[in-house]
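Protein in question kept underneath.
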Amino acid sequence: MAYGLEPLVRASLPGAPAVCVDCVFWQSKLGRPVPKDRWTERAEDDWGAWGTLYREDGERLLGVIQYGPTELFPRAFELPAGPPSEDAVLVTCAYLVDPSTPWVMQSLFLSAIGEARDRRIKAIEAFGYRYQEGTAPNERFLVHRTVFPSDFLADFGFATLRTDGRVELARLELASLVPAGEGRVAEAKRRLKELLAPEPVPERYG
């Protein structure tokens, strides 16, 4: 069994989860939707792949993540705790297809972090949410896929920039990532696997 990453571009978009194919939540301002094909053309021309598909054996889709320069996502400038920084790559959403493979979420984040580092981007940012203690893992990771649990981001080294209620904008300075930090990433994988693996996921979330 082999796992691989595939760039998310116009040609591969039809292979993403159906909910992702036409969604323009992040790509448009409130009340002003834009055609997805027009946005993807601009994103690919200006930036390249705007995300990653994670596959098993080259076929079965396990997850997808979307990210790119903050200017590609106008909705981020309207959200609580925003706006994101102009010098950062913004992770806007991730979709975990199979709840039995929780480690895919970390792999997707690592792909975004690695891509940003390869492009010599200064930092990567994401919106987080501080859940109440005892919130079920299914709700934390399989419902709110566009706003990530704050402790999940913290495990990767993200630091809070600002908060608005339970919503926060978090930032990871890529220059601060050194080999010694690999232990933190391994711990993040272990913790998420413990959170998700013990509980079955309702069929409507599968």
Summary: Helices lie at 18-21, 36-46, 103-118, 137-142, 150-155, 182-196. The longest helix spans residues 103-118. Residues 7 and 52 are 5 Å apart (CA to CA). Strands lie at 3-7, 51-56, 60-69, 88-96, 123-129, 148-149, 159-164, 167-173.
